[in-house]
Write a sequence for this structure.
């Protein structure tokens, strides 16, 4: 049976400006390493309408092949900040209801870990709150 939750013991949440919180590594991590597998809570299109009216809107992911649902990831996943030069990527596993975070390059100890909110780690498409970084 595959694990549906895993957080590497060397990643942690710390303060960052201006976002408030971010995920960091306390040691060097090689490219291609899985650093987190997080279970998700899947919600309906109707639920998403309610969530979109709250602060949680900024922490949910579109979910499903048609992206009609949304999900709240558990673990540290909601706290990874966005970068167009992300050093991590995320993979959604709809059947297992998990999100996996994996490094796309070597990470230095003390470095903040970023994902690209567009889904692909190197996707330059503007997102709803920023156009650079």
């Amino acid at each position: 049976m595959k694990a549906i939750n895993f957080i590497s013991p060397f990643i942690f949440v710390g303060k960052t400006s201006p976002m408030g919180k971010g995920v960091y590594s306390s040691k060097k991590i090689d490219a291609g390493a899985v650093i987190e597998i997080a279970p998700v809570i899947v919600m309906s299109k109707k639920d998403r309408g309610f969530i979109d009216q709250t602060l949680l809107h900024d922490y949910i992911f579109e979910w499903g092949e048609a992206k009609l649902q949304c999900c709240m990831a558990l673990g540290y996943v909601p706290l990874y900040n966005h970068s167009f030069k992300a050093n991590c990527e995320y993979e959604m596993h709809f059947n297992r209801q998990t999100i996996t975070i994996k490094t796309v390059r070597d990470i230095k100890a003390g470095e903040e870990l970023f994902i690209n909110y567009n889904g692909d780690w190197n996707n330059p498409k503007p997102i709803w709150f920023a156009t650079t970084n």
